[in-house]
From TrEMBL:
Membership in a protein family: Belongs to the aspartokinase family.
Any Gene Ontology biological process: homoserine biosynthetic process
Keyword Signal among UniProt keywords: no
Domain Aspartokinase ACT residues, every copy: 178-228
Aspartate/glutamate/uridylate kinase domain location: 2-62
Record protein name field: aspartate kinase
Coiled coil: none
Keywords, ordered alphabetically: ATP-binding, Kinase, Nucleotide-binding, Transferase
Gene Ontology MF annotations: aspartate kinase activity; ATP binding
One Pfam family recorded for the sequence: ACT_9
GO cellular component, one term: cytosol
Amino acid sequence: VQVWKDVDGILSSDPRLVPNAIPVPDVSYEEASEMAYFGAKVLHPIAMVPVMKYNIPVRVKNSYNPSAVGTVIVNRDTPSNRLVTAITYKRNIKLLDIQSTNMLGAYGFLSKVFAEFEMHKLSVDVLASSEVSISLTLDKKQRDENMNSLLKNLGPYADVALKEDMSLLTLIADVGRTSEVLATVFRVFCTQDIKVQMMSQGASKVNISFVLHDSQLEEAVLSLHSCFFENQCVVEPYHSEQKEDGSL
């Protein structure tokens, strides 16, 4: 299957924000699906379902530059040798912090919360949870009246804080090397004074997401892209020490 777009395949980030974004030669079905879900505009997540089901390779090409190799999307059982494959983002999301110390040692807190989300037809992007608290994000497509009703219903048994004008920055990365990725990410964020409001590592094992203020998104994306793709990092990138056999 070939998909013809106006860029040279799947890029390392959105070229409208990152002028130095580069084509990624190959990605797995899972990586492509996560990139699409978390903001990349090349393919819709639903479009990946039939090709994954029947194990059909997909090549993304540029209709304005047909000689470019493009990107091939394939079934891959082993991780690539890339630390980070791409950086994607969503703007204008909402961050909801829900906390109830009354639920310490009790059961049913999560079920109560998500029953409310189901009733109000609100879908969640990413979340992080503990025994007595949940932080989660919702995109801008959610209806305000549904959100207001949800907040009212959660009030009797939880303290709820809603933060708007947030962004979700996602690294499509080798989660098996999470420590190496995060060592560089947080050194960059610390140097640039970028405040992380929430972090989540996806169950898919190919994405790590950060919630930031909208006003800091551009600086965060550009700084991380410089580190992982341009060899122009504002800090010394962290590299795990090599073993005697040369592996990482």
